[in-house]
């Protein structure tokens, strides 16, 4: 197989192609079922070309629609919130029931004497809920089962509805790299022992393992020959020395430490924490990384002000706000951000060409898998 060409990391036309061919028709994480507690609670998202909304109905079900009015197309809901018992378009106040049916049209008799309201419901999008996580695919009638089936019995055990788990405010990174650079770094086992020598302390290529599951992949620390762990040995020792408390639902072992879900989601699952990271391309050479983080109640606090590069005015994290070199921060995520931005700087050079990738599931094999999966979805 051939690796992705350089222009796919640098060219704005390719960014647009990805928005159409990839992000408009694959499954993406948008929020938790528990974010939608009450009737009318909603979340919105932009998935590729499509603004979408997900909403809690009166009967407790969830529904997901294109977030656009059937009259002249105004986007309906913004951000997250509660819309009450109906969705009202701010333009001419067409009103939809939460299940998407068009209920009210001002001046209907005068202005629309023949209006067929039944044909003007909000358009549905595909969605599914897995372990409490909501995924949406803008493409109608997409099979959610085929997205989650590869994870099968390998899934993480964390129960986010347990009352010993709390969520802290999310982290919002603004990265100066193509989103694929960050994914490739996240699934590269070869760099762990080197870039992260001081933070993760390995594992080496034969002491960690990515296992391929369809287009997804699951990572394990395999320093112990008999048991697969979610955390490298160095981090397990540190946690024990701090007497960190394990989450009730995740105290066992054998599950993966990182789940990469194609195309743009990482789940990080440890006995102590759980996080969901989503990469959102913002241009060919930039992306946002949103991290939702959960931990043990009592042990877990808002970490934002301790994150290198955090700016409290914008509530975002950027390398330009760093006050010391990345490798001196003791934060492995900062090390990753630093290296990804350096890779992008290299890709931006016309002199860039791939050297050989290392072989092995604890090395750079997963990058080959990622390119294969992308090439299946994207036509050149
Ligand atoms: S565009 Fe929504 S009511 Fe006119
Ligand atoms: Fe890394």
Would you write up a description of this structure?
It is a single chain. With 380 residues, the protein is of the alpha+beta class. It folds into two domains: 28-141, Rieske Iron-sulfur Protein, CATH 2.102.10.10; 153-377, Alpha-Beta Complex (Naphthalene 1,2-dioxygenase Alpha Subunit, Chain A, domain 1). Helix content is 17%, strand content 27%. The chain has seven helices and 19 strands. The protein has helices at residues 12-21, 108-111, 144-148, 179-186, 233-241, 332-347, 365-377; strands spanning 28-32, 41-47, 50-56, 62-66, 80-82, 86-88, 95-97, 102-104, 126-130, 133-137, 165-175, 208-213, 216-221, 258-261, 265-269, 273-283, 286-296, 310-311, 316-317. The strands form five sheets. A seven-stranded antiparallel sheet has the order 11-17-16-15-14-13-12, covered by helices on one side. A four-stranded antiparallel sheet has the order 4-3-2-5, with no helix packed on it. Strands 1-10-9 form a three-stranded antiparallel sheet. Strand 9 and strand 10 form a beta hairpin. Helix 4 (179-186) crosses helix 6. The longest helix is centred in the last third of the chain and has 16 residues, at 332-347. The protein is globular. The model has no long low-confidence stretch (mean pLDDT 96). Bound molecules: FE2/S2 (inorganic) cluster and fe (ii) ion (FE2). FE2/S2 (inorganic) cluster binds at residues 69, 71-72, 74, 89, 91-92, 94.
